[in-house]
Write a structure and sequence with these properties.
heterodimer; A: 70 residues; mainly beta; five-stranded mixed sheet; B: 269 residues; eight-stranded mixed sheet; 11 helices; 35% helix
């Protein structure tokens, strides 16, 4: 088990775990609507599959929000 | 130096009383020129508070007319305004609140053909739009023109905002490109609690006033998000991205882009 932080909350996860799998585990319903920051750096979408989570990682999901006007 | 009239001293007394604002700060506010893009859920509270604060010139861009379904959150428009261009309805309210404010209206959509021309007349831009193509357009145009802006987005019970100054993280640093058209819920499809628009819009208005008066710390290199269901607010530190396609070291975007609007958005248009 590895201790990581997701959106400022502590989580324990089973390794190995790719970023794509972590996103799935966190019930992100529309992955195309999030931007992911890992340890303060944005991770390009095409690297999500390859990227492996490690002990101590801090992950933020930032959601697209489009509303405002009409 | 502006010579304040007795009436102005009275009108702005609660600003002037603030040590951080004072007469000097109020004068900066009165010399400021702000462009509000979208006279909707966010643009309404933003415009009302900026007008009340005495912003010298407010430009408003919107090509829509007031619809009955807008009134649940777009508090600058009244029942009698249904069918009236939003820019006209907003201008009337701003002038009624504060005749000191000069209002410029643009009854058109912001797109790649007019964005830079309109933006260049202003010191600060507030994004109150409801769709990603225009959010990216505002970002790119402001980065190109070296203008600061406030980003705002709301959805259901959530809101997000940050402030961009030249050199700090931009929208594309955080969100590289618009999500695929069709994947995207906007307010018109997904719904929004009306008061959320007020919560976020007033944060954007406060950031605008902070920018002109130099008070405190702006929401630069930070994305503020909140969930009104739990009333949890969070500011996520975000870094300027060296590989950002518009503000990075080797920008690949050298012109403004009109992205496709999601098909389902157009239906509700």
């Amino acid at each position: 088990m590895a201790k990581i932080t997701v959106n400022e909350e502590a989580q324990e996860v089973q390794l190995p775990l790719s970023l794509t799998e972590l996103i799935k585990q966190n019930d992100v319903q529309q992955p195309e609507m999030v931007s992911v920051q890992l340890n303060d750096d944005f991770v390009d979408r095409n690297e999500w599959d390859r990227l492996q989570i490690k002990e101590g990682d801090s992950v933020d999901f930032l959601y697209f929000m489009g509303g405002g006007s009409r | 130096m502006i010579d304040f009239t007795e009436e102005q001293i009275q009108r702005y007394s609660r600003h002037i009383l603030l040590q951080d604002v004072g007469v000097e700060g109020q004068e900066k506010i009165m010399n400021a020129r702000v462009l509000v893009v979208g006279a909707g859920g966010l643009g309404a509270p933003v415009s009302l508070y900026l007008a009340a604060a005495g912003i010298g010139t407010i430009g408003i861009v919107d090509a829509d007319v007031v619809d009955l379904s807008n009134l649940q959150r777009q508090v600058i428009h009244f029942t009698k305004d249904v069918g009236v261009p939003k820019v006209q309805s907003a201008k009337e309210k701003i002038e009624a609140i504060n005749p000191d404010v000069k209002v410029n209206t643009y009854y058109e959509f912001l797109d790649s053909s007019n964005a830079l021309d309109i933006i260049k007349e202003y010191d600060f831009v507030v994004d109150g739009t409801d769709n990603f193509p225009v959010k990216f357009l505002i970002n790119d145009a402001c980065v190109m023109a070296g203008k600061p802006f406030s980003h705002g987005g709301i959805l259901r019970f959530n809101g997000q905002t940050f402030t961009h100054l030249p050199g700090t993280a931009c929208y594309r640093c955080m969100f590289k490109e618009p999500p695929p058209a069709g994947a995207v819920p906007t307010c018109s499809q997904a719904g929004v609690l009306g008061a959320i628009a007020g919560m976020l819009g007033t944060i954007q208005a406060a950031e605008t006033l902070k920018y002109f008066t130099g008070i405190g710390e702006l929401l630069t290199n930070r994305l503020l998000t909140f969930d009104a269901k739990t009333m949890q607010f969070r500011t996520v530190p975000v870094k300027h991205r060296d590989s950002c396609p518009i503000c990075g070291q080797a920008p690949t975007i050298d012109h403004l882009i009109d992205y496709e609007q999601a098909a389902c958005d157009l239906k509700n248009h």
